[in-house]
Amino acid sequence: MRWLRWLWVPWLSLAMTAGAGAAELDLTCTITFPTGAAGPDPVVAITVDLGARWAVVHHTLSGKAYARRDQYFIKSAFAKPGLFVWKGMDFRRPSLTMTGIASRGKDGVWTYREFTFDARRGRVFTSRMESRCVSAGPAADRPPPRQAAIGPALATWSAKEGARSVDVDGISLSFTTVGASGPYAYPQVTLRGIGVPTQVIALKHADASFGVNYGVLRLDPAHSSKDVLISGYTGGAHCCSVTKVASLIAGAWKIVDVPETDGMALDHAPLDLNHDGTPDFRFIDDAFLYMFTDYADSVAPSRFYRINDGAMVDESGDAAFRPLYHEEMLRFMPSCRAGHHGGCAAYVAAAARAGEFDGAWRFMLAHFNRTSTWDILDCAPLEAGCTATTRDFVGALARFLRTQGYIH
After folding, report:
1. Phi/psi of residue 301, each to 5°?
2. Which of 147, 189, 284, 289 is the most exposed place for a label (fewest CB within 10 A)?
3. Element containing residue 172 per DSSP (H, E)
4. What is the pLDDT of residues 89-122, one digit of tens each?
């Protein structure tokens, strides 16, 4: 039946206003049950007015709106802090009733659910929709920020200390400032140890005035006995950490170049995020910066790497990271809902990694800014010197995600 199509859509957003003078509550939700979508014009958003006269409106991909008040006689409505409930009877089939519930859990996360019952069958439960939400409303209504998983802090050497040596876990690290990289001197570290060869690590792209962070770790326990991580910073606007790892494998050092990424030097040791016994590096995907909007408005999903036998391996496609990408989806969704191309691009990319691409793509199609004047680089693959541009955001995003390996 046509009015049941909302049950089979993967995304919705809720805008809730708790009456005159009350703080606005704005929720954006992800369908957790059921999965999949049906119909040529699926629902992509729901607005709920929690004022004196309740209004629940479903908005479809094509822009149509279906008010629950036009479909149901609202029999009752109830609200208290952290809980909103409405109940209604279907005008066309009075035996059918629906209950909608928005509730905030102990963890501060909101959920929104709708249930249908049939009185002709003994008030048998016939269908349900469940969703998980994030709040874009006042801070008091938002779930508390989740504590980021970070490893132990790395030690620091400052160029102001001058040449210095430290011993860590049987390895001597000697720090000094040498040479020049452009106008800057760069940091250099020499590794020594009993029974191991001397190894020099030069961070030639880093600015020595920012010092380096370092640690002797176990980043590749299947192959190396020790891994020395050295991380510096290039300096300059919008730029980069420079990191190298020296892995001691079978009595010899192998140097691993960690991808340069936007931000300061790494300051914490990597953690095992996918629980496979090997620590994982988590960086943002810099390819999204400036791609669909300016730097300040750009957001990016994560990429995950591990070290394997002296080489850096991109493991972002590992299904074990899907919960982390799902969290990123929820974080990017409000930006996409507001029509920001940077948010939409990151949201859809994270959804692809989370295994939820189809619904996210439909959500993006309903919300992207159709009047944007941002010129998007349109070379596949992207190359230095690319000058071809387009303002076709949807087409460029599809090609970009395919080139970057998010979709096939």
Report:
1. -75, 170
2. 147
3. strand 171-181
4. 898 888 899 998 888 888 777 788 889 998 887 7
